[in-house]
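Treating backbone geometry as a discrete language has practical consequences that deserve illustration. Part of our work consisted of pairing the sequence of a single chain with a tokenised description of its backbone. What the numbers capture is local backbone geometry rather than side-chain detail. For completeness, the protein is quoted in full, as a sequence line and a line of structure tokens:
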Amino acid sequence: MKGLVIVGDYFEDVEMIAPVDVWKRHKEEITIASVMHRKEVISARGIKMETNALLEELNLNEYDFLFVPGGPGVSKILVNLKEVSDTINYFTNNSKTVCAICAAPMLIGRLGLLKDKNYTAFPGYDKQIIGGNYMRDKGAVSDGKFITGKSMYYSIEFALLVIETLYDKNEKEQLLLSLQGEN
């Protein structure tokens, strides 16, 4: 499958890199796209990284799932960009999977897309989500086409849940075994 990751400055390092690493090990085709109108982005820990593309250059129809990592950039930058909301709506309206972790589920939930859905998010960001059932004690939650994660600590669990949701539990278990060096 083909995944699109959208980032701006101050994304949470582990929340972006760990899931992408897990998915690439599973042979998913991942494109990391900047919403900053420049390919270089700066992580929350000050690491400069060059993305594969700019969001505005891409054909969203080519992607099977969308992932938005958390971090301070979510509430400082991404929340203010129409193209982020438009991208989330495009994936949702086309029945494609939308994944977000930490602060980023707020970007989905403020659009009302998590109404009547189970979700998790970094504590406090749940207050900006319209409707839905906040699963405070869960590290990662899948409900329909939405997959949410609570925080950096749960990045691997979240990434594996995405694989389980996109494929099946057996596929996730096989990947987990290979990550543990058991395969």
